[in-house]
Design goal:
The complex is a heterodimer of chains A (497) and B (397).
Chain A (H helix, E strand, L loop, with lengths): L2 E7 L3 H12 L4 E4 L11 E4 L2 E4 L16 H8 L8 E3 L2 E7 L3 E6 L2 H11 L6 H21 L11 H6 L4 H8 L3 H7 L3 H4 L8 H14 L2 E3 L2 H15 L3 E3 L4 E7 L2 E7 L4 E9 L3 H7 L8 H5 L9 E9 L12 E5 L4 H7 L8 E6 H4 L9 E9 L2 H4 L6 H19 L7 E7 L1 H8 L29 E3 L9 H21 L1
Parallel strand pairs in A: 1-2, 1-12, 2-9, 6-14, 12-18
Antiparallel strand pairs in A: 3-4, 5-8, 6-7, 10-11, 11-12, 13-16, 13-17, 14-15, 15-16
Helix pairs in contact in A: 1-10, 1-18, 4-9
Chain B lengths: L2 H5 L5 H14 L9 H9 L4 E12 L2 E7 L13 E8 L2 E8 L10 E6 L5 H9 L5 E4 L16 E7 L3 H13 L5 E8 L8 H10 L3 E7 L9 E2 L4 H8 L7 E5 L2 H13 L7 E3 L23 E6 L4 E5 L4 H7 L18 E5 L2 E2 L8 H5 L2 E2 L5 E2 L3 E4 L11
Parallel strand pairs in B: 7-8, 7-11, 8-9, 9-10, 11-12, 13-19
Antiparallel strand pairs in B: 1-2, 1-6, 2-5, 3-4, 3-6, 13-14, 15-17, 15-19, 16-18
The chains are: A alpha/beta (497), B alpha/beta (397).
Bound molecules: flavin-adenine dinucleotide (FAD) (2 copies) and FE2/S2 (inorganic) cluster.
Chain lengths: 497, 397
Amino acid sequence: MAEYDVVVIGAGNGGLTGALTLAKAGRKVLLLERHNVPGGCATSFVRGRFEFEVALHQLSGMGSDERPGPLRSVLGELGVLDKLEFVEMENLYRVVWPDTLDIILHAERAAIIETLQQRFPKEKEAIPGFFELVYGFSMEMIQGVFFRDPAISKEKYPLFFKYALTPTQKILDGFFEDPLLKALLGIYWSYLGVPPSRMPFGDFAIMFFAYIEFKPYHLKGGSQSLSNALLDEFLMNGGEARFNCGAQKIDISNGRVKGVTTEHGDTVLTRYVLSNASILETYLNLMDPEEAPHNALEAYRSSTIGPSAFTIYMGFDCEPGDLGIQETTNFITTTTDMDKTFSLWKTLEQQDVALFTCYDVADPEFSPKGASQAAFVSLQYAEPWYLVPPHQYYDTKYRYADGMLKLAERVFPGIRDHIEEMEVATPMTHLRYLGHPGGAIYGFDQFAKDSAYFMTSTSPVQGLYFAGAWAGSGGFQPTLTSGRSSARAILKSMAKG
Amino acid sequence: MSLKDVLKDIEGYQEIGEEIAVLKKYGTDHSSQRGQVRKIIDLLHPGKLKLHVSEIIRETGSTKTFRMVSPDGYLPPFQAGQYINLVVETGGIVTSRDYSISSAPSQTAFYDITVRQIGEGFVSDYLLNDVKVGDEFQSSSPAGNFYYNPLIHGNDLVFLAGGSGITPFMSMIRETLSRGLDRRIHLIYGSLTPDDVIFGQELENLSRNHPNFNRTLVISNPPEGYTGRRGFITADLMKETLGEDISGKTYFICGPEAMYTFCEKELYRLGISRKKIRTEMYGPPKDVSEQPGWPASVGRDAIVTVSIKNGKSVQVRTTEPLMNSLERNGIVIPSLCRSGECSLCRTKLLKGRVFQPEGVRLRASDRKFGYIHPCMAYPLSDLEIQLSNAEFSGSQD
Ligand SMILES: Cc1cc2nc3c(=O)[nH]c(=O)nc-3n(C[C@H](O)[C@H](O)[C@H](O)COP(=O)(O)OP(=O)(O)OC[C@H]3O[C@@H](n4cnc5c(N)ncnc54)[C@H](O)[C@@H]3O)c2cc1C
Ligand SMILES: Cc1cc2nc3c(=O)[nH]c(=O)nc-3n(C[C@H](O)[C@H](O)[C@H](O)COP(=O)(O)OP(=O)(O)OC[C@H]3O[C@@H](n4cnc5c(N)ncnc54)[C@H](O)[C@@H]3O)c2cc1C
Ligand code: FES
């Protein structure tokens, strides 16, 4: 029977960086992926002459060559930077509410302040203060927590200890009056899937700070090129990968990983498994119920399955300019009530906030010459889709997509007539391609109680480790980073023998 | 103090701790969801289907409809125009072919597939000559991107069908008319001879009973004395039969490769824009060496060697899709569309050159990192490939 040092289950971001870190350290690694391409969310698919980006809208934490962000360092250490071409975006985002608001934030602190002060003169005084808090807090968090200052204390890092768990809405309310201003400043909440009233300020501040300081990025060839680059480097370092080959079962004896059996019935021996499958799938469906650690499962009683997404992928037969698309990242909204928006995610009712990303604005080569593409996405939970009878699934999906498209048309009238290719992905689509409960794209809900301050993804099963959104938080930067951290933990455990 | 302990000093920490304690008692019992993900996926997209032939209907001299039912009574939904990938084992070889479902999606009890014997067809011969009621098959769940999208395709549709290419249209027509959907359909259906027209009677009845459905038959090889339309589906024929607003309609083409290349050109001649044209790739071309871009230097039926990393080496013909050649040698790569579109067969090419006709839909980064779609890749030289489903190293070499 074949034997490996580590079997990695799942080639999503976390699985790929984990597998690569282990292979680079000279371990014999087998990577199993149920789909036919690497990447998980970080993939693309082809329709007609378009290659549609599945997930990546804005890559965080990259930074430039001169001022590298944390993600650039991770990718550099993994040896994939020279296989990739990055595209920096000048602007954070545009927020548009037809007939009410239309504003573009440049990815630069002073410029944002100026723009906001012009548009919201009544809030002129408060605006710089808010940014001081975001920055001051972020600096403390970086020094105290990320760099693990051994002398960390309330006195040394007052902003951090005061605000890390405060709801973002409370902070916004403290600074500002105008609900429009609060809504547009907090709009990145949809990247975390938690409304400002429940999103810890710590999560918001560090994300906002990072996107401004390190700029949002995209990749030539989309996120699939990153997944392919990571896989290529993994193979070059002697790793083995199997596609169309899900893990079926983790063999355990005496509380220790012994091997893995694939969906095709092959069994390999290993003492370590790094699972990029969801924690729930791993415990519930990849183990004999007798072997599954009851306590570990119980620990997730306080957690709920996070949102998935509903996306319309559109390939246009013309250039962005022809459709009035000037920005890459356009948040379209018709409300300032984000709690209501969040509650709509649990229904099949028309959404009132969604993100329209046109990749060709920042990267004119993204689509074929003379054409362009956009993804129009809103987060959504899977539950309402579970209630749709299978034989009404397609009708429901089109009806729902039609409503979404009408929302986009309020800002970009006439786009419908230029759609050459179109695909609609529902939470059920993500469920199918990722194999995660609820088709969740960020793992568990990320309320304050679910953060790393309270939860751990360490498993009581010896040799079992997790990487990816379910084991921390979702998004590219966190999941890519988590694979490397978990791999290091495995290497450490191996060194101990 | 450890970091964890210090963090307890964060404002609000205590309250959240209490919230968690409550939720630990009354929160979600995830273990009740054991097996749920698989079940939910299986309702819409089961990986594999088991099918039984419940009835065989002779349609024409060369065509039969196979009515497929599921032993457990459940068949997943599909969009009219989609196909299934049917796995067959014949002559000791395991292979598969795609067949569009010709029954309507509203018919949930069975899938009809309608197969034409093409003469010298490996699988179609077997299906038409040997398959009996009660035979069992395995297939994919319904797949493919050839279907009507109500958001962008409008209400005015033209179906251009050639030969067995009528099958996805039959499903779309049956669905539209039986559900009373607000769509107008004009079918232009080309066949070799009047006897080759599949579903002729049903189409005639439907067009008589439904004002929103018209059909035009055209015969390319008519017998003497034939009075109907002759020839091919040309721009002139379309101008003549489709009436007003030719450029406002959406055109769907399905048929042999030669037909859709021809029809597409005719549509461009009429000034139809590409976004108004939908085509179904109907598998590999009949003769790949006639495809644009095929290198003249490579012999039509030259033999080359394909070596599989850590596996065996086999001799293959340059003009046969790599996937088919491998199947002949007992090596089965997962397949679905067999037209280069879906990437299920994605395989890494380590050495050598292949020809992939236009229409093969590789991702840009797949191309960059040396992946090919063997269902539509033809070897031009000796090759080395890496199979991602090969034996695990160490088990055998
Ligand atoms: C529409 C959309 C938009 C997004 N936009 C952004 C954005 O702009 N910025 C950002 O940072 N993030 C974004 N995200 C989120 C981000 O893509 C994800 O959080 C991240 O990619 C998750 O990575 P992961 O490591 O958790 O693995 P996943 O991507 O969840 O992949 C898990 C992998 O494991 C495989 N697997 C599961 N079970 C098994 C098994 N039993 N055997 C073998 N393999 C298995 C799956 O097939 C999959 O490939 C978006 C996601 C989506 C879907
Ligand atoms: C999406 C899709 C939907 C389809 N729907 C239908 C349908 O509804 N009904 C239907 O009848 N068909 C349909 N087809 C076609 C079908 O899948 C098969 O291609 C068809 O039945 C012929 O298969 P075969 O095995 O009989 O022929 P094959 O043996 O595969 O031969 C196919 C062609 O290649 C030539 N050929 C045969 N052997 C070789 C060789 N060794 N080297 C080179 N060329 C060779 C043959 O002359 C023939 O022209 C569909 C195809 C696709 C992709
Ligand atoms: S089987 Fe679909 S691309 Fe080869």
